Amino acid sequence: MRNTILPVIFVVTIASGCTAQPGPPVLAPGRWFTVTFPEMPPTLFALSTQRTDPAQMTVFLPRNYDPQRKHPLFIFLNGGDGGNASNPTVARALTEEQDFICVALPLFKISLDPNSPVNKPPVLIVRSADGQYGWPFVRTMLAKLDQTVPNIDPDHRILGGFSNGAHATAALIDGSDGEVTHMFSAFIFGEGGGGLQHYELLKGKPFLMISSSARSLPRATEIADTAKAAGALTTLLFEDIGQHGFTTAVYPKIREWLRGPALGK
C-alpha cells in the first residue's frame, strides 16, 4: 500500500465568530479548525454533488481541553455522501463537547460509475475496494492530526459511523491491512457495516453495534454475534424508532458506552 504525502493548508475557523484565517491553529478549549488537502482526489461528497470542494477535516477541541494531558479521540463518519467534513456535529453532541477531541472526516469512493463491478446497487455505498483506495488519504489526514494536536491519547481512539459512515468504517478496517485496528482502540457501527470481512481484526476491541428498527435488528444481531465470536468486546444497542435513522434518544446510551467500555472502564 503506497505512502501518500500530500500538501495541506490550514484554514482556522474560530467557533465564536465563525471567521476564517490562514495559519496554524490555536489549541485552546472550545476551538475548532479545518485543514484542507487540495491535492487529494474528490471525496464522495464532491463526486455526488459535482462540487469542487477540496478534501478536508475539521477538528474540535473539547471545552475542557488541557494541552498538558492526553485526550481521547472520537471520529464519527456521516451517512449518505458523508458531507464535506466541515463540523464533527454528531461526535460533539455525543461527547457533550467534553473530554474528547472530535474530528470530522470525509468519505472516499473510487467512483460513482454504475457500470463498475464494485458498484453494485446502491452505487453510493462505500465497500472494501473503496476502503483500500481511501485509506492512504485518511492516513495522511490522521498523520496531520497527530502532528497538529500532539496530546491525543494513543490508547483511546474511537472510530465509527452511521449508515454509509458505518460501511466506510468497515471498508477502512478491511482495506488497511490491519492499520486501522492498530491505530484505533474501539469501533461503532450504526445501522451499517455489514460488509466487514475481517472480523478477527476486532479481537480485544470494544465494539458497539446499533440498530434503530425491528427490520434491521436481525442483521445487527448477526453482525454483533460474529464480532463477539471473533473476540470483540461487543455491545448491541437497540433503540427502536421504526426506521433507518440515528435518533438523539439513543445518545445517552452511546455516551455511557463511550465513557465506559470504549475507554476500558
Structure description:
The protein is an alpha/beta fold. The chain has a single domain, classed as Alpha/Beta hydrolase fold, catalytic domain (Rossmann fold, 3-Layer(aba) Sandwich), CATH 3.40.50. Helices cover 28% and strands 23% of the residues. It has a 10-stranded mixed sheet, sandwiched between helices. Helix 3 packs across helix 4.
What overall geometry do the principal axes of the alpha carbons give? Answer: globular
Indicate the mean pLDDT: 92
Q: Report the span from N to C terminus.
A: 35 Å
- State Rg: 17 Å
CATH class: Alpha Beta
The counted number of beta strands is 10
CATH architecture classification name: 3-Layer(aba) Sandwich
Question: Which class best fits the helix and strand makeup?
Answer: alpha/beta
Largest sheet: 10 strands, mixed
User: Which range does the strand content fall in?
Assistant: 15-25%
- How many domains, in number, for the residues? 1
Number of helices: 7
**Sequence of strands across the biggest β-sheet:** 2-1-3-4-6-5-7-8-9-10
Helix content: 25-40%
List low-confidence stretches.
1-10, 12-21
The CATH superfamily is Alpha/Beta hydrolase fold, catalytic domain
Question: Which fold does the CATH topology refer to?
Answer: Rossmann fold
Q: Topology as H/E string? A: EEEHEEHEHEHHEEHEH
